[in-house]
């Protein structure tokens, strides 16, 4: 195996463009980066790596190359040196049509994934198809009910759960389809990401590993206050039923149901309907006989991991409890360690906890007894990717930064008490590894501020690695400036990390406008040692046009441990503003050609809130700003998110009053462009309306752009329009001479 690794052939040649441009005597590139280029998904200059992935349940690699219907898919084993062509997209489409599928020209009609080394799955709107590669026809294995909005497939694809017309349906490979709930509607939601997708919840349908049982969420939203959504594009605006849970107000009630395919029975996990709590991280045990749920109190300072009997729904045991005076936020259920003897009922599990000040993994016995802490260090473990091996000899493959919070690496962690964490990924930067089916290999995509992208193959036990591909620098031919990481300190001495995009070839005697991009909220990390620092192309585009562009991660953001994240508890918009201003001061001090009299700021969502906070709390430091979809009054934002970081308005009236930018509209300084989608169901349009109303009362002149029926993230032409509008706004306010 080791010998074969040395024979592997790189998929692409290494990049030399960026280095060549820096050598003496070679003219610097003169091509300008254009806004139209970065807004075009097909033409935008982004690093390109081959589309390589693992074939499911194997150590085979799969590669797709070509565009659209011209794509060809090939595979090869770890110990092979050549790719075997397997099929083309036209062959796949032909097999679907022979099997009876009605295809359109929509590329999604042929979205596929490997089931194993011999067959692929095609999950379409009308159902699920299998195609054994090389055969003339694909086979429909499941038929979806009409009007399906959500679905989940059992591991063997022989049964599927679908939400259609608000109710839950079960479809089987033998053609039987059965409706199993009858009371779903817009207020009673089955199979959705309950609790507005907080606590890492991204779905509401879960199959056990055997495919026998399905767990599903039932969210009764009727306690939430009604919210008057509307289709404003109709000739006569039409009311759309909806509800929105605002901080401190009554909360949706969630329960977890179990459908059993053996006898078509249905039951719910035991619960008290009068207890207001969060049901999160729903996880089946290895054999499907038990189900585990993390229950979090409404105040989000206490949680319990509870085991239920999946056959009866009875509550069996509380395996562990955790408490935090500020907030607790479990985002992953128990991960069961595979056993060599297959004794699933006694399998130990790993549990994420921040009890020592950082997010780490702890090993627990099946009854919840804690054995030991598995990972350790002054850093957060981001994700548990997979296990390699079984039992006490197993090793967990995890991602974590290690000592440098700007990086992300893959680590191998022994579960035995006498081992230490071993870093598997090499070199600086941000690594996103994918693990082979047997846990023995990593396919590692990574980049750094100086490396556009690379693809490595890494052996998880032996540590051998091989560079498969290196991306060319997509900006090498463009006239762009330096990218630079920097570090400053908060008022209490806490290190803060920032990123600069500088103008190309700045003239020392000339002054350049400053543009500060901000988010600043929990769960975010904008500054990374990754290509472009993980920023969007618009930021280096603005720098290429003569802006000094600044990004900073303030206290309250992610990947820096509990103390750093919880510093903002009950006072959102306070320390974040202070830290952002210190970042601005650092740049104005260290970049001599940055113009302190021409500073703009932009952010979206929490960043929109931060933009308004900076413009109303900094005594005129900002010449202008663009605030997108901002929270302007936290009392009007959703329960789970707001109450975690602020408590309720009744419990923390001073904190809510201090955070409200509506109350500070009178202090707005600088030119403001306020932007919001009219169908935003995350940060309601009413936030911007209330702020505009306060600006009118305070005689503050602002510009406002509404994007008709766009939701929280602008899409398509609306997104392109916004970037053109924002670019013109900053140019008018900062680049060109203007009168006051």
- Amount of helix: 10-25%
Mean of all residue-level pLDDT scores: 92
Low-confidence stretches: 1-25
> How large is the count of helical segments?
12
Overall 3D form: globular
Number of strands: 43
Quote the beta fraction: 25-35%
What is the distance, rounded to the nearest whole angstrom, between the alpha carbons of the first and last residues? 71 Å
Structural class: alpha+beta
Subunit organisation of the chains: single chain
Backbone CA Rg:
27 Å
What is the makeup of the main sheet? 8 strands, mixed
The strand line-up of the biggest sheet is: 36-37-39-38-40-41-42-43
Structure explained in plain terms:
- It is a single chain.
- The chain is an alpha+beta fold.
- The chain is globular and about 75 Å long.
- It starts with a helix and ends in a 5-residue tail after the last helix.
- The N terminus is likely disordered.
Task: Summarize it.
This protein has 740 residues and is an alpha+beta fold. It has twelve helices and 43 strands. An eight-stranded mixed beta sheet has the order 36-37-39-38-40-41-42-43, sandwiched between helices.
What layout of secondary structure does this protein have?
Layout: H1 2-5, H2 17-22, H3 35-39, E1 51-54, E2 61-65, E3 72-76, E4 84-88, H4 89-98, E5 112-114, E6 119-124, E7 127-132, E8 139-143, E9 148-153, E10 159-164, E11 167-172, E12 177-179, E13 188-190, E14 205-207, E15 213-220, E16 229-231, E17 238-240, E18 253-260, E19 265-268, E20 277-284, E21 290-297, E22 302-309, E23 315-323, E24 335-336, E25 349-353, E26 360-364, E27 370-373, E28 381-388, E29 395-400, E30 409-414, E31 422-423, E32 430-435, E33 441-447, E34 454-459, E35 465-470, E36 483-489, E37 495-501, E38 512-517, H5 538-544, E39 548-553, H6 561-566, H7 575-590, E40 594-604, H8 606-616, E41 624-628, H9 639-646, H10 653-659, E42 671-677, H11 685-697, E43 703-707, H12 716-735
Parallel strand pairs: 38-39, 38-40, 40-41, 41-42, 42-43
Antiparallel strand pairs: 1-2, 2-3, 3-4, 5-6, 6-7, 7-8, 9-10, 10-11, 11-12, 13-15, 14-15, 15-18, 16-17, 18-19, 20-21, 21-22, 22-23, 24-25, 25-26, 26-27, 28-29, 29-30, 30-31, 32-33, 33-34, 34-35, 36-37, 37-39
